[in-house]
Amino acid sequence: MTDFYKGLSPVKFEGEQSTNALAYRHYNKDEIVAGKRMEDHIRPAVAYWHSFAAEGGDPFGGRTFDRPWYDKGMDGARMKADVAFETFDMLDVPFFCFHDVDIAPEGDSLAESNKNVREIGEIFAKKMETSRTRLLWGTANLFSNRRYMGGAATNPDPDVFTYAAAQVKNVLELTHELGGENYVLWGGREGYETLLNTKIGQESDQMARFLTLVIEHADKIGFKGQILIEPKPQEPTKHQYDYDVATVYGFLQRYGLEKRVKCNIEVGHAFLAGHSFEHELAVASSLGMLGSVDANRNDLQSGWDTDHFPNNPGEMALAFYYILKQGGLGKGGFNFDAKLRRQSLDPADLLYGHVGGLDVLARGLKAAAAMIEDGEFDRLLDERYAGWQSGEGKAILNGERSLENLAERVERENLQPQPRSGRQEYLENLVNRFV
Ligand code: XUL
Ligand code: CO
């Protein structure tokens, strides 16, 4: 045990009446909601990068946090791993996620970097023998090092592509060995700053080739987890190729990869793309692409990906509505891709962020389950589209009517469609009844 959380006790569920800021008020992992344990619905994960590697920097100033593992090389990485697993225990969460560079320092060569990553991977494996926390997903950081400034898979230099591929091979294999349930590819710098130096078609082919190599290797090593792309429209590059779910789907379909790859959808990224979180989830679900979620929120005034912890139960209610409707996230989960504000210096702050976030998810889940149980949304939706279930509507969809047929019918029956209320206010009020 380190003394990082000295004086603090593990977070437990105490119920809605509790005033203990380090207790769950809604997240009761064993409570059955819609036929399943709450934890099995949410599958929450702590993100290694924000919780243990981030330093509280912003564009105007560097590190504000003061963690005992900073600047200590591999010794620091080992201490960081200790505190990470103590955090998982304190929060009683079933999952975590990491990038290679979060867990171990980069060396002078890829071989040395990979060796460092592997060494910490072995420590994880050892800790997982006694901890209940599992790996939700692993990923490779292909965006921080200056070699990736012009992209990884989409770099104009094939040697950078090659280096990135070797890095992914290492993390994919480690993810597999640690029993990770998913592997994520966020296209950190897969995009462009200016079209003046960019061949879009060429870069698209490169990206597809890279993804194909990842899939082939996953199959070769017997990795049965989901392979996930995480859409984001901008930042760090001006235009990221994986703009949103629909764009990613188009890309995958173009290269015949849509059956093997799903999406990891992040709240803040949806917002940057001009969508709501539930829009991205609903689109992904309708395409069979909803794999996992990065839970956070953006500051609505800043226009940046600020990665705050979630705090809007209404938004999460709608999110869970679509997740429950598709029968859950399967191997996916809710990774807290959320970081502390730079003045939140204390170890307790790390717990407050996750406690609040998990309680918001739990409230959203319970509200969505109640909405579905109530049945009014389904009933109204079915009623609104009832015309397509039989008669002329069905015949049109089945391809049994031509444009001429339709025109004839309008004349023959003197068709005068009568508009009907969409009842938006009624429906919004109905959501709030459950939140
Ligand atoms: C960046 C982001 C990443 C990915 C993993 O906006 O969301 O942290 O989740 O690379
Ligand atoms: Co993310």
Automatic annotation (TrEMBL):
This is Xylose isomerase. InterPro entries: Xyl_isomerase-like_sf, Xyl_isomerase-like_TIM-brl, Xylose_isom_bac, Xylose_isomerase. It comes from Devosia pacifica. One of its GO terms (biological process) is D-xylose metabolic process. Keywords: Carbohydrate metabolism, Cytoplasm, Isomerase, Magnesium, Metal-binding, Xylose metabolism. It catalyses: alpha-D-xylose = alpha-D-xylulofuranose. Its EC number is 5.3.1.5. Pfam families: AP_endonuc_2. Binds 2 magnesium ions per subunit. Residues 151-301 form the Xylose isomerase-like TIM barrel domain. Transmembrane segments: none annotated. One of its GO terms (molecular function) is magnesium ion binding. Belongs to the xylose isomerase family. Homotetramer. NCBIfam families: PRK05474.1 (NF003998), xylose_isom_A (TIGR02630).
